[in-house]
Amino acid sequence: MTTRPSCYPARDEAPLLDVLTSPVPVGRFDSPVDGRHVLCLHLGSPVPVSYRAGRHERQGTRLHGQFCVVPAGSSTRWTLQAPATSLLLRLNPALMQEAAGHMRLEAGLVPAIHIRDPQVERIGWMMQAEEQDGHPSGRLFADSLASALAARLLALQTWPDRLPVAGPVRALPVWRLRAVQDYVEANLDRDLTLAELAAVAGFSVSHFKALFRHAVGMPVHRFVLGRRVERARQLLLAGQLSNTEIALEAGFAHPSHMARCVRAVLGRAPAQLRADRLI
Predict the structure, then answer these.
(1) pTM for the complete prediction?
(2) Dihedrals φ, ψ of 100, to 5°?
(3) What burial class does residue 270 get, using C-beta atoms within 10 Å of its C-beta: 0-12 exposed, 13-18 middle, 19+ buried?
(4) pLDDT digits (tens, 9 = 90+) for 184-235
């Protein structure tokens, strides 16, 4: 029996979604029981693998980008014919339950193996990039990906004729929208979370995302990024702070992260913006 190393360190506050690139040993092992739903995306070359959940066993070859689902509180037995690497996405079950209520679906998640879905893959690659870059986009971006992942997993395991018909989407009331916008402006230097902003608006995370997007015309994380870029632009034009100080004041992880975002949104580098005030 091969012992699998511990996957996740203990944390005082667990995020809605976290990510870890983990080596998976050759041989047989039982996955550790986790309080979260765990998705394992395979990275690299094909690997023959067998998978047992309860009395059911499946065999096959795991390909790059395919994923398996291990529901919260369960354990699965794996046998690998070669070493492998997995990108582990761990999702908060409470978020899954909230998304299910919003979609009017059952909240339970069933075990699965060798699944391929472009949307889940994109979420995985974005979370991997965030991990590799030190999470420059902050908790709000990861929370948005968590919500999207929960909704997609529910849709994937639901038959098409059971999917609810979407009703009309309401917009966030003006006074609640203003409260959220004021809160964002007052806390741009902090690592904001989706749950935090939803609480300010007085809605659940799932409802808040849809209501905010309908009211503003863009996702929450994109709106906050735009406000960060605008704060940075104003401070660059003022010319009183260094790039490091401006990055921290506007809520960016570091100056290079700020520079990438400023160029992406405004099409100009911070140095060009500084030069504009001298013209």
Answers:
(1) 0.74
(2) -65, -40
(3) buried
(4) 999 999 999 999 999 999 988 888 998 998 888 889 999 999 999 999 999 9
The DSSP annotation for 128-184 comes to HHHHHTT-TTHHHHHHHHHHHHHHHHHHHTS-GGGSPPP-PPPPPPHHHHHHHHHHH
Q: Do 87 and 106 share a structural domain?
A: yes
Could you give the number of structural domains in the chain?
3
Asked whether the beta carbons of 135 and 127 are under 8 A apart, the reply is no
Q: Is residue 261 part of a domain?
A: yes
Q: Closest Cα partner for 80 from 53, 57, 51? A: 51
User: What separation in angstroms does the CA of 27 have from each of 30, 52, 56, 84, 139?
Assistant: 10, 14, 19, 11, 36
Last residue of a domain, one of 56, 82, 117: 117
30-46 per-position pLDDT tens digit: 888 889 999 999 998 88
Domain of residue 60 covers 17-117
